[in-house]
């Protein structure tokens, strides 16, 4: 198999940068804050400014790791990276518009609600700003004019989760959705339905009110004891589900999407079967890498197809190793 010049460059840059990461790059600021990365070795093209605008809610540990990846890449390539997040699509659109008005050199956007962001992303493309989409909205990324999408196939990941739960004897599953209108979460539940081949019910909770989420999951499991599996789509909600299962005396088996230190510890303790790992650090790191290559050398990566960062699976077999990496803010 032959490697293209662009992909070789990405691989070399990625390897050299990852070997330079340290614990000092961990510990992102709360979502919604803006930060500039410190300058590292200056690239040949003389730096640049890249804006990352996600649908992150405040305090979401998943997005802190994405932010860490973007800022670490900014330091490595000597470019300025700003990060902002807002779970409200209208406010996220405003943040995109602000970045366009500031004439940034590149834009990274997560599209949990693509229709709400289409106009703002279109303004960036019309202004000649290269856009890389991440995490969600991959099915319309190219249509919206983005040069690359970085993330995982939610359908494929959902099927994998459903298959794992089926192998553990789950026949009736509760799929817990924590963000209304997030198309990626619906795709995960759809995939889990295919992989399980059994009954899948959906339960809507609010990621911003985890105590209420615990109560709702507990009540649903107690009202229908035939539910013998739970799949959460967020690490904080996974912990809430773990508590709900324990408090309610349920025998339901639990799997989740995405990692946190608490989730990894729960996997080690046998409280959670697995976590679907989309390696979100790469969803911060790779877009800045790709935009830097585009600015310096007009490279595009992916050939119009998404660049997949997952799915992988963290289980009891590899949780201890992942826990060590999570402490540095890269997993």
Report on this model:
By secondary structure, this protein is α/β, with parallel strands linked by helices. Helix content is 46%, strand content 18%. The protein has helices at 5-18, 61-77, 89-101, 114-126, 138-144, 154-167, 183-196, 210-223, 235-247, 261-268, 280-297, 319-326; strands spanning 49-54, 80-85, 106-110, 131-134, 148-152, 172-177, 199-204, 229-232, 253-257, 274-277, 307-310, 312-314. Strand 3, helix 4 (114-126) and strand 4 form a beta-alpha-beta unit. Helix 2 runs parallel beside helix 11, helix 6 (154-167) packs parallel to helix 7 and helix 10 packs antiparallel against helix 12 (319-326). The longest helix has 18 residues, at 280-297. The chain starts with a helix and ends in a 5-residue tail after the last helix. Mean pLDDT is 87; it is low at 1-45.
Short structural description:
It is built from 12 helices and 12 strands. The protein is an alpha/beta fold and 331 residues long.
Helix content: 40-55%
Structural class: alpha/beta
Radius of gyration (Å): 20 Å
Average of pLDDT: 87
Biggest β-sheet, characterized? Answer: 6 strands, parallel
| H/E element sequence | HEHEHEHEHEHEHEHEHEHEHEEH
Strand order of the largest sheet: 2-1-3-4-5-11
The 3D shape can be described as elongated
Distance linking N and C termini: 30 Å
User: How many strand elements?
Assistant: 12
Regions with little confidence, pLDDT below 50 for 5+ residues: 1-45
Percentage beta strand:
15-25%
Helical stretch tally: 12
